[in-house]
Amino acid sequence: MPASGHMRHPFDLSCIESGEDLIQFFNKISKSLANHSLNAKVKIDGLNVSFKYVGGQFAVDRGSNKEIDVSGITIDRVEERYGKGHGMLKAITNLLTILNSALPDIKQEIKDLGLVDNPHYFLNTEYVEGHTNVTSYSNSFIAFHGVNGFYAKYKKPTKKELKQNPSALPELIRSGIEGGSGSVEVSYSQETLNKLVAKLKPHAQKIGFDVCGPVSAYCHKSIDLESVLDSAFDMITYSRELERFKGKSIRQCLQLIQSKPSHYIVNRYNKFYQTREGKKVSPYNKSIYSEVIEHSTPVESFVIRQDLIEVTHGIILMHATRLLGRQILKSMTSTIGDLSNQSVSHEGIVIRDNLFSPHPFKLTGDFIVSGASGLIAQKVKASK
Q1: What is the structure's pLDDT at 118?
Q2: Residue 340: helix, strand or coil by DSSP?
Q3: Which of 218, 229, 250, 361 is 20 to 30 A from residue 183's alpha carbon, by CA?
Q4: Phi and psi for 209 in degrees, rounded to 5?
Q5: What is the mean pLDDT of the chain?
Q6: 88-101 and 190-205 helices cross at what angle (nearest 10)?
Q7: Three-state DSSP state, 221
Q8: d(Cα 6, Cα 81) in Å, to the nearest integer?
């Protein structure tokens, strides 16, 4: 997972307690997008990179507890972090070169965005160079999403250390915001971010790159959610425990979910369920979802019988979110193209609006599944 962490899907939001809540939420979103009262941004599909300002220069921070991430991967330490010949070397070197060369021009902006006074703040960006991940783009660019802040991290004393010193306290290994894990988007000025982007452009162009801020997305044709909600949910193999869903529409299946199986709290799910191998998974596990929906593998092949209903609820919520999100994206366009067409299918849209949620959230459609098979995911899997 990138340093910016997991961006919430609609089913992750605290305002969604049930399947009916999800239906009403999507109806509200579609109406607001259709009348242009909701500000949506394109979610670029690239390599997520996080930059902070340390020691008078920019550095990358992947969010791990490693010293090199906490201190900052400066341009002279890129090979040390990734290893000689790693595919990330070129990307990170290019980005640090652009940012550092622009420093004399952007000192005021990075201070106003909080990066100078808060070393745990970072610029949340997306790096794209042609076919960087799943989506193919015609040019190379850096997209700036916003400003995030890392949560503080502590190392708990071991049992041996506690035995030697019962009053031993957790050791601070990464300073930051108290009370969470990973990172969270912080308050910042969009106007200042736009100024930063404008000043970076000439520096990026010297090495053949463009720079953009959040790209606005807007509705350009009607959104039809009813046809999705009324379509049959017939993708799963029904066991005796799952008979209640048989022959039902997606709407009817959602209405049977009175309480969602897990909530996303402080950057993690609060309930996990047991697989047949004894592992614990969230009910929104992508691998299980894909096997069940794409290959009709029975849900009971993956989880113990006691957890069958709850995991199925997760699969239904994911599938409805995928199809309803896809339907909305079909009606969205932007200055860099439609959100869904034959040549480019962007990752989705991001919505930041306190009327819907205090947290940014995304609508990604089929990218809920296809993102897991992207080039970046493959590289990460290979390196592991």
Answers
A1: 96
A2: coil
A3: 218
A4: -120, 160
A5: 88
A6: 110
A7: coil
A8: 23
